[in-house]
């Protein structure tokens, strides 16, 4: 099915030469040939571009009617007659850049909607789009070319760098955000962390949460994800890091550059993720731990100890991947039953 123009405006048709420049690819076709858009292998037509980044889809490649396919150089000879091969070292990345050429993110439409509520001492940079019912608190500073969609809330004193996007019903308080930060719908940044002290009578008294959230340049926070502010220091999401939907980040967590945290994962307070850590879906990381640079945590893992850099762990409690699969194999060999008897 073609991209629905009601939701995604197209910049096409575009020249093959421009697509090659974006993808960093090579092709023997006419650089002046025009294409109208992108589509999956099984749905693309002669005027559309598709991609292949997994060999298990080679049968779909053989049947495709796409005008051009972005793929690895060693697969270029397997495209069907009439389809151009765009050979790129990173096909998925190349295709993403081509798709972004056809369907660029909409830029701001400068202006402030009359229903927006903006504190008199707040600063809104040039070229910003401030949508209906947006609230901007006292002393807040909004950089240039930002988009604040309907019902977004920016708390007092918050700073947003240039080019930020706050989608509907997102909120940010007690925070400083860099350039190009994106908050998807319903994201919550800077709320009070989960900190309390029990009393002798069995009640709980809230520990004041006096820190901030620091969002690095081009960090993205998924829909309905929460990033608590620090208790005494700061919670930090490093530059370029991405949180999927429904992620929980506890107070004083610090991530490095380019970390990926997938849906329904949770990182408990004061844990440090070094650069380029990946945390898969529904994984949980206990507090006050350190996960080394480049480590990968598998889906539904329960991390209770530090994780060395460039290691892969899975299971609960989490263990190195090889140990986990050895344990699984032993369990299966035993029939998956507890051979002991209840005493």
Automatic annotation (TrEMBL):
InterPro entries: Hexapep, Hexapep_transf_CS, LpxD, Trimer_LpxA-like_sf, UDP_GlcNAc_AcTrfase_non-rep. The active site is at residue 251. Pfam families: Hexapep (PF00132), LpxD (PF04613). Its EC number is 2.3.1.191. Residues 34-101 form the UDP-3-O-[3-hydroxymyristoyl] glucosamine N-acyltransferase non-repeat region domain. The keyword Plastid does not apply. It comes from the Bacteria. One of its GO terms (molecular function) is UDP-3-O-[(3R)-3-hydroxyacyl]-glucosamine N-acyltransferase activity. Pathway: Bacterial outer membrane biogenesis; LPS lipid A biosynthesis. Homotrimer. NCBIfam families: lipid_A_lpxD, PRK00892.1. Catalyzes the N-acylation of UDP-3-O-acylglucosamine using 3-hydroxyacyl-ACP as the acyl donor. Is involved in the biosynthesis of lipid A, a phosphorylated glycolipid that anchors the lipopolysaccharide to the outer membrane of the cell. This is UDP-3-O-acylglucosamine N-acyltransferase. It comes from Belnapia mucosa.
């Amino acid at each position: 099915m073609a991209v629905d123009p009601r939701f995604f405006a197209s910049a096409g048709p575009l020249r093959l030469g421009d697509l090659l420049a974006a993808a960093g690819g090579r092709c023997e076709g006419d650089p002046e040939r025009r294409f109208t858009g992108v589509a999956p292998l099984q749905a693309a037509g002669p005027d559309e571009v598709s991609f292949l980044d997994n060999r298990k889809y080679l049968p779909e490649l053989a049947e495709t009617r796409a005008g051009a396919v972005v793929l690895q150089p060693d697969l270029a000879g397997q495209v069907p007659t009439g389809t151009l091969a765009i050979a790129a070292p990173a096909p998925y990345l190349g295709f993403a850049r081509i798709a972004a050429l056809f369907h660029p993110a909409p830029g701001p439409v400068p202006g402030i909607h009359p229903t927006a509520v903006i504190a008199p001492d707040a600063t809104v940079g040039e070229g910003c789009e401030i949508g209906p019912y947006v609230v901007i608190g006292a002393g807040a500073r909004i950089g240039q070319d930002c988009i604040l969609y309907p019902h977004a809330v920016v708390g007092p004193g918050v700073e947003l760098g240039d080019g930020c996007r706050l989608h509907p019903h997102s909120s940010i308080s007690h925070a400083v955000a860099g350039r190009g930060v994106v908050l998807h719908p319903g994201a919550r940044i800077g709320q009070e962390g989960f900190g309390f002290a029990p009393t002798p009578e069995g009640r709980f008294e809230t520990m004041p949460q006096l820190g901030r959230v620091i969002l690095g340049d081009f960090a993205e926070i998924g829909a309905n994800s929460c990033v608590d502010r620090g208790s005494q220091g700061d919670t930090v999401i490093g530059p370029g890091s991405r949180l999927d939907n429904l992620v929980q980040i506890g107070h004083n967590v610090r991530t490095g550059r380019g970390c990926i945290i997938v849906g329904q994962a949770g990182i408990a307070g004061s844990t440090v993720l070094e650069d380029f850590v990946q945390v898969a879906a529904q994984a949980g990381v206990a507090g006050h731990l350190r996960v080394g640079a480049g480590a990968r945590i598998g889906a539904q893992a329960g991390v209770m100890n530090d994780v060395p850099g460039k290691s892969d762990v899975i299971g609960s409690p989490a263990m190195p991947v090889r140990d986990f699969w050895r344990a699984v194999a032993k369990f299966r060999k035993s029939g998956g039953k507890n051979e002991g008897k209840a005493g």
